[in-house]
Design goal:
The chain has 2 domains: about 160 residues, TPP-binding domain (Rossmann fold); about 80 residues, SIR2/SIRT2 'Small Domain'. The chain has 10 helices and 9 strands. A 6-stranded parallel β-sheet has the order 3-2-1-7-8-9, sandwiched between helices. Strand 7, helix 9 and strand 8 form a beta-alpha-beta unit. The structure holds adenosine-5-diphosphoribose (APR). The site of adenosine-5-diphosphoribose has 24 residues, from helix 2.
């Protein structure tokens, strides 16, 4: 049985609900970039060139060995620069056009949602395409691949770091405020391609649910969120999201 037939009843019910509401929030994780050829963090093959994110994506690792951390990020930037958004990313662009108030919250730092054409994107873990000076704090976009290692601040010569949120660091307060507002007002929230284990993003769906949102999960595997979701669509983002948008278009 093909995926459309397998998911048909859930796709119909979820698209009917999406047709009736105004405010939709989507949360994505590394799983939606997987079909673009970018490894996830915790799935099979989730090692980033034999490194665990917990070992390198930390302020302590950067202080201890900035060259190793930059080698790892430069390798990821190279990989991501060769990746393309896929049908799942593009389906979210279509969904944004079809829904009156749409907010896309992503844990991914790869920028693929913006490259696909998504407009309202909240990057809660920052961007791998931005660098921040550890001395003067200047943040700017830097898309050089490869980067000169170690990259230095053009303004003050200080050591640059990736402008991403590392383990143990807090999210940007402005971004978090926008996330809270979107979750409080959400009527439907789609959770796509996240293992729902890294806080605070892992709690976003529960916050939305507390405000009355209906939850839908798109993931080939079950997660800690699956049992509290109103709609469960087992499958890959690149397969399921286009089917959902197609079902919604048929409802219109
Ligand atoms: N489509 C949808 N989901 C998929 C696909 C796919 N094609 N392939 C894998 N997945 C799912 C996996 O089943 C898993 O649940 O994507 C999820 C990936 O989980 P993680 O690798 O833990 O990624 P994520 O949840 O985004 O990690 C959160 O942890 O390392 C930090 O900052 C990093 O943002 C990251 C955060």
């Amino acid at each position: 049985m093909d995926k459309k037939a397998e998911l048909h009843p859930v796709l119909v019910n979820l698209s009917r609900l999406l047709q009736q509401v105004e405010r939709v929030v989507v949360l994505t994780g590394a799983g939606i970039s997987h079909e673009s050829g970018i490894p996830t963090f915790r799935g099979p093959g989730g090692l980033w060139r034999n490194f665990r994110p917990e070992d390198l994506a930390t302020p302590q690792a950067f202080a201890r060995d900035p060259h190793l951390v930059w080698e790892w990020y430069d390798w990821r930037r190279g990989l991501i620069s060769r990746a393309e958004p896929h049908a799942g990313h593009r389906a979210l662009v279509r969904l944004e056009e079809m829904v009156p108030e749409f907010t896309l919250i992503t844990q991914n730092v790869d920028g693929l949602h913006a490259r696909a054409g998504s407009r309202r994107v909240l990057e809660v873990h920052g961007s791998i395409w931005e660098v921040r000076c550890t001395a003067c704090g200047l943040v700017r976009e830097d898309r050089r691949v490869p980067l000169p290692l170690l990259p230095r601040c053009q303004a003050c010569g200080g050591l640059l770091r990736p402008n991403v949120v590392w383990f143990g660091e807090s999210l940007d307060s402005g971004v978090l405020e926008a996330v809270h507002l979107a979750l409080k007002q959400a009527q439907v929230m789609l959770v796509v391609g996240t293992s729902a284990v890294v806080q605070p993003a892992a709690s976003f769906a529960l916050w939305a649910r507390q405000s009355g949102a209906k939850l839908a999960e798109i993931n080939p595997d079950p997660t800690p969120l699956t049992s509290v979701c109103d709609f469960v669509l087992p499958g890959k983002a690149g397969e399921v999201l286009p089917l959902l948008v197609e079902a919604l278009a048929e409802e219109a």
